[in-house]
Amino acid sequence: MSDRLRIRAAGPAIANPLLAALLRRMLGRLRHGRLVCRLPGGVCLEQQGPLPGPDAVLDVHQPRRTLTLLMHGAAGLHEGYIAGVWSSPNLPALLTLLALNFTPAPPSAPLAGPRRVIARWRHAANANSRSGSRRNILAHYDLGNAFYAAWLDASMLYSSALYAAPEDTLETAQARKLDLVTDWLDVRGGANVLDIGCGWGALARRLGAEGGRVTGITLSPAQLDHARLFADGMISFALRDYRDETGLYDRIVSIEMLEAVGEVYWPTYFSTLRALETRWPRRAADHYHRRRAIW
Question: Which of 130, 136, 127, 140 is nearest to 264 (CA)?
Fold first, then answer.
């Protein structure tokens, strides 16, 4: 299996030499799978890596804009897809290949330092103080429940699913994640449960069905409206910041909440959890992680 770069041209050479250099450099780093880049004019760049991986195709429709967006890393890649600057006949295969092969630019890379300074300044402007958290949540989650219902599973879970096989549906993978969390928490017998960042209430409903007395809190009025449709004697929901929660709980669950808290507030977050716990508590937390280089 060859890992040499192949270039097939049915038309003129790549018009933008900077884009050509960037694509060749990207393809030269390929270790897993096979990537084909198709450009206007019939130019096709192809690279087969030495290790197994998916076969993927990147179709470039607007070379100049592609160059500009690629220089902005993952965010630029996302924006380019939305704008139709590039596409792929098999997007999951392409994203899998990119995740296997490419890491963020190191801190020593050109422009990496200034970009990080700008990114941190923007992040600081959105700090998750009490007022900042409410503002950030409103901007993100109150786009409307219909928007999220269009692409989430039927239970409206907005967190990472647990896949056992590539052919699993989203519903199957989310149900598996709920099973795992529910089994770990073991709320049978009427455990008092706090669900921080309860979203649209899917986990709270499941824990209530298993016998737990559940309080779910969120900062999103839209999420609260939906969650309260399912409230009953075992489950209640409130619009409340975790820092304002009182009482004692046997179980505390927080699914993909830490990243919304903000690193500067992590000590406050964990000290709040300790203050809310009974003597023999059990916690369940699920967080996603990103390399600091792309924060």
Answer: 127
